[in-house]
Amino acid sequence: MIKTLGLEYFKIRRKKISIMIMLFLGVEMLWAFISINRSIAGNQDQAIWESVIHTIASMNGLFIPILSAIIVSRICDMEHKGSTWKILVTTNVGRGQIYSAKYICANSLLFYTILAQTLLMVMFGLIKGFPGAPPFELLIQFIGSTLLTTLAVTALQQWISLAIKNQAFAL
Questions:
Q1: What's the pLDDT tens digit per position in 107-149?
Q2: pLDDT at position 43, please?
Q3: Alpha helix positions (H), the chain
Q4: Fewer CB in a 10 Å sphere around the end CB: N or C, the chain?
Q5: Whole domain around residue 121: which residue ranges?
Q6: CA atoms within 13 A on the CB side of 76
Q7: Residue among 57, 11, 9 nearest 32 (CA)
Q8: Count of domains forming the chain
Q9: How far apart are CA 64 and CA 148, in angstroms?
Q10: Where does the sequence pass through the membrane (predicted)?
């Protein structure tokens, strides 16, 4: 399983997925921080940690499924474009291991994205001078709930991307 997972990371190294993730994350966080700045400018009582966490959690409802679909589609597209499914099946690696390796690979990339979001939220709150220390309990809940929904969306998207050869339709 470890070798299969290592091969998945090896295969995506030239796909520029990390650049796409950074751009996607940058757009989402910029949009969120502009929205929060406007809210704070209108009402200073909105300058609290909970408002940042709530705003970004709400925006993740839109952005994370799209990002998940793009990442999974890019990972699964390699096998469709190269017609390597038959070759993979003839090796001693089972279909379940292939699915699991792709699933873990995609979710690890998304997990690092969620951690980066959390770090950016903390930095934003500290720069803006929010009262009190960052609420680590809420941040852990944010990470856990976002990751939990991401795992479900990724599983569904990967099933669709593996079943359908045309990735434009799978998206």
A1: 999 999 999 999 999 999 999 888 888 999 999 999 999 999 9
A2: 77
A3: 2-12, 17-42, 49-81, 85-90, 95-128, 136-163, 167-170
A4: N
A5: 2-170
A6: 28
A7: 57
A8: 1
A9: 12
A10: 21-40, 52-72, 109-127, 139-156
